[in-house]
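Chain A, query sequence.
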Amino acid sequence: MAQVPQTFFDALAVRTWCGLALESLGRAREEIDAINVYPVADGDTGTNLYLTVESAAAAVEAVFTAYDVGKPTLADAVRAMAHGALIGARGNSGTILAQLLRGMAQVLAAERETAHTDGTGLRLALRTAADSARQAVAHPVEGTVLTVASAAADAAGAATGDDCGAIARAAFDGARAALAATPGQLAALERAGVVDAGGRGLVAVLGALVETFTGEAAPVVAGAATRARAGTEDDPAGAEDCADDPGEGGPAFEVIYLLEAEDAAVARLRDRLDALGDSLVVVGGDGLWNVHVHVDDAGAAVEAGVEAGRPYRIRITHFGAGDAHSTGERTPRERVQRAVVAVVPGEGLAGLYGEAGATTVLARPGEPPASGELVQAVRRAHAREVVLLPNDADLRHTAAAAAEQARAEGIRVALIPTRSAVQGIAALAVHEPERRFDEDVVSMTSAAGATRHAEVAVAEHRSWTSAGICQAGDVLGLIDGDVAVIGADVTAVAETVLDRMLAAGGELVTLVLGDDAPETIAGHLETRVRETYLAVDTVMYRGGRQGALLLIGVE
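Chain A, predicted structure.
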């Protein structure tokens, strides 16, 4: 797409840059995915960078759309770009890119009323970006995107003049040279015969910056995808992972979430997560952070976020035993045979499902996931066969659309129409990846169908229900999706709901407590079951901020 060169760095240049960077990453996405071997050979760096920039570009477009007359200031545009990247950052490299853009924004938005900046401002922005990104990574490693960013900033700093095009060109050339040298800095890259995937993505983004100011497309990076290609058709991104200690296997889960928290709490969070795993990157500021870490205990990583503040948009990816983190001589990484993808309503359940090996999509109250988010989760699961658990009756059409799209991409998907997270827990409990796919799906469907579900919630407004008229603030007990009890006391309503469900029989009661549930309700209900229903067992989980006060399952 032809672009009018931008002499200065203003709001329009930010918009143009985001659009060109998105186009460039779109063209290079598959190539970058194919050379992704560090820190985990999961073949998704190109996709993650694309999604991160896509979110940044959308935020900038929204700012321009909001102006009926005139255009936004440079500060408006770069802050939107940084915020969009922060909330949409995916994976290790995407999170670092978000911090690079945030570092640039800190400089370019310093003077809110400034209409534009020149090469001097761009030079300083690139330096601040590289430094802030390095500070965000718990244990910086050379030969990665951090090295490429620092080289770009060094080259921009050595360039003379105030022309933005010349500064951008110098940064691009410095980044490209540093990228070519990355195989000599990381053993994993040298063995695989590739350059760093995250660095390759950054070079594409800087190439778009050059085109923004000069109108000329930057040259393709020579040799960027050179590799000893021994990959399979399912996954061309073979080659081993080489973490900080190449003699050890890496953690089993990738955990990512947005976090609303104060600076002091985030400092403590960094220390705790650093002790739990590796590949720790915490970016952001001003009360909003994006947290990325690889751990063996996904629940502990989420709980650490809960203690620090309010985590949301939690994504937990199970790398799969013996693939992404294996070490030594190995065959190319292939897709796992089977995975479970589940929508969950709270942070606590995200940790629970993640520990059971599921890839999760968090559904916040009033913010159901779109089909595209479910498709991305299916792709992240990196499996030939996927069992999809929507865990909400209202998501059945969304989940069906996602399943169809994933099938069109060659993934075998079975959609189990779970209507509650407790049904999903029951299905996951009988999941056996070693069974034939159809047998596993039938078993999981049967377990979910045999689980009656209920929830206790507070009415938001006056309305007609199957149990009569409720007022705003009333406590509602819903059984299998219909209002069965209206009351004023949470514990009393929960007890009534539980008694009605167990009147039809049952062997196991599952209780999932939301953060706003009374502290005593779990003990009260467990005692009620133990004393009244002698042959029934009870299990309790913490669901976090899940919307409902309490979820109940009876099997």
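The longest helix spans residues 11-34. The radius of gyration is 25 Å.
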